[in-house]
User: Fold phosphoenolpyruvate carboxykinase (ATP) from Papaver somniferum.
Amino acid sequence: MAANGNASVKVEVCHDDSAPPVKAQTIDQLHSLQKKKPSAPTTPRKQQGADLFTAAISDQERQQQQLQSISASLASLTRETGPKVVKGDPSARKSAEAPKAQITHHHHHLTAPVVPISDSALKFTHILYNLSPSELYEQAIKYEHGSFISSSGALATLSGAKTGRSPRDKRVVRDGSNEDDLWWGKGSPNIEMDEHTFMVNRERAVDYLNSLDKVYVNDQFLNWDPEHQIKVRIVSARAYHSLFMHNMCIRPTEEELENFGTPDFTIYNAGQFPCNRYTHYMTSSTSIDLNLARREMVILGTQYAGEMKKGLFSVMHYLMPKRGILSLHSGCNMGKGGDVALFFGLSGTGKTTLSTDQNRYLIGDDEHCWSDNGVSNIEGGCYAKCIDLSGEKEPEIWNAIKFGTVLENVVFDEHTREVDYTDKSVTENTRAAYPIEYIPNAKIPCVGPHPKNVILLSCDAFGVLPPVSKLNLAQTMYHFISGYTALVAGTVEGVKEPTATFSACFGAAFIMLHPTKYAAMLAEKMQKHGATAWLVNTGWSGGSYGSGNRIKLAYTRKIIDAIHSGSLLEATYTKTGVFGLEIPTAVEGVPSEILDPINLWADKQAYKDTLLKLAGLFRNNFDGFTNYNIGKDSTLTEEILAAGPVF
Assistant:
């Protein structure tokens, strides 16, 4: 109160919080202010001498060159011309506005311009080039029916009628350049087609892509070893496919994109459009065609994204061995001391579970190269199975399913968008594709020294293989070529008892050369770099499936730990009958009685009968490889055969 009795009045000054009006005259101009141009690349040049040439090229000229390269990729070979291409989303451009950054027809030969003879030649094809995940999310949500954002932030989408690969529809052009190199005939995944039929399908795919208002183009790399890196271009019609390959291939820097140039291999994914079933060699409306001479791949009649990933893996299985580099379908991790281990195994053997170890760095989960420089991951991401996924069982994969990840064919709550990973309504083959850096202990760059251990995993449902055995080089080649595991009752309709399955090199569907060539390269590199091979059974003991018990995962982990530490090399070994495997008498943390499988069988004769039965299955499978000589004579072939079961 004031002295005169009147209340004092405190006057607050009202600050003016207003700001100058935005510098825009229209709503479109306001929206344009929302997005700023990407900053110039700051990555140092790999070759300083290149600055003398690149400095003279303006951004506009570089963009013109880039568009010319894409136009050439999309060229119709009958018309010898590529489409008119322009960067950007057509929906974001006013219809009356003429494209500024564009390239007209690109001609392959120095001839007079070809007169346009098709409607697609009269229009612009808009190129959505190396979009970011955010941009691809927007495209998928807006234009692709069945695309949603899950509660974890991943993009949930559908692959259409095909929810898995179509190996019977895969074709490889057989010509003079590869006829003697590739594996043809019985047991081979390579089904031949001729050059003319490939060109028919290529023309069909290119015409379809050119008829669209927009296509997605990804320029990326394969192989983390910079000395042996491959440049790949993926042309597709769906944002889902573009984001999938963004995750699965190695993502270039801005500078690498500027100087990308001509790709080493190109995929034309026109999967929404079927092939012509009246075309020679076609057996359905689906066709996945590889032309190694042209270094091109065409996809028709399937939208399953895994066809692109595994198609490129097949290409690497051809290109890398020609450079003396071994391509491998394996997991790979590295200890803190630099010791590298390779994990081979078919579905259900525990390859992903055992190669993902929180105490070791993950180099990769599926595809690798072994060169004179060491090992390197081929891919830039992981493609994980999601069926029955839980955060408790596989926390690394669970936590990787976030913004940027592609979720294929999963079922989710209509309101909350929470995914039910147990639901098989669409397919059992639900998948997640995410960048490898989403795994916390991933080693970036994904390279490592030469492997110290090579681990061959088998889920033996017959219960006669030991939990672990040490292999010599001939045995390594024999079991690597065999690629054995077993199906159990319930996994496949009609299976009543354990069924042996063999997949050469633990990935027969993707190899291009004869399996013995990869096996010989593996043995040569192991011998040169002092690696040890191990056969680890993650299946049954004490009896076959139905009577015995699955070997505890905790015991298998102890065995793998002993392999990593080197302590298993110091163990005492005994040799088994029939397969001649060396088994340790003791492993820390593992009951000694389970190390020799006969110990836990109550009926010893049943064990011997089952062992001989499995040995017979091995021998029958290997008959397909006995007539193939490795090297100048058949000495090595004879050594491999001698490493098999002896009756």
